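Hey, sorry to bother you again with one of my protein questions. I've been staring at a protein lately and its backbone has me curious. I owe you a coffee for this, so here goes:
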Amino acid sequence: MTEHQPTRHPFFEETLETKPIFQGRMISLQVDTVRLPDGRTATREIVKHPGAVAILALQGDKMLVVEQFRKPLDKVQVEIPAGKLEPGEDPLEAAARELEEETGFRASKLTLLQSFSTSPGFAEEIVHLYYADQLEQGDVHLDEEEFLTCEAITLEQAWQYIRKGRICDAKTLLAVYAWELKVKTGSLPG
């Protein structure tokens, strides 16, 4: 009896070669040569990232956000608390760590809402979005190169920030939509 081999999707691209281009503290870049479904070859530029966590943290009828400068956009942004996963780190533990480090609050319970890819056309980063609404005071522990402020905003303020471009990142937009769904229906997505 032969083992059943899983069928590959007809669009699958087999990697023929990987060339490392750059290795940084947070990301690396590689160029893969792939075989296309029609037999030709092509190259794919891929950003490798260890993944991240983000937290929709509600304190009563307000959401905790942080304001910080984002160099790739060259402007200050308002975002939900978030951070990079350390190698081998459990996303749930990372979410608890990042929430307290950036906001000074601890969550008695964190619930995974969704894991999503940020830019699947060129990056492998997966963000794990958690929800917390039972918060207690902890201690802020910002990273050495981290400068930010924390505030609690209403849902209407969040929409104003979106309209003004102060909130424009996918994780925070997704969190605001999930929060609005919770307000309107009493439950979160998922």
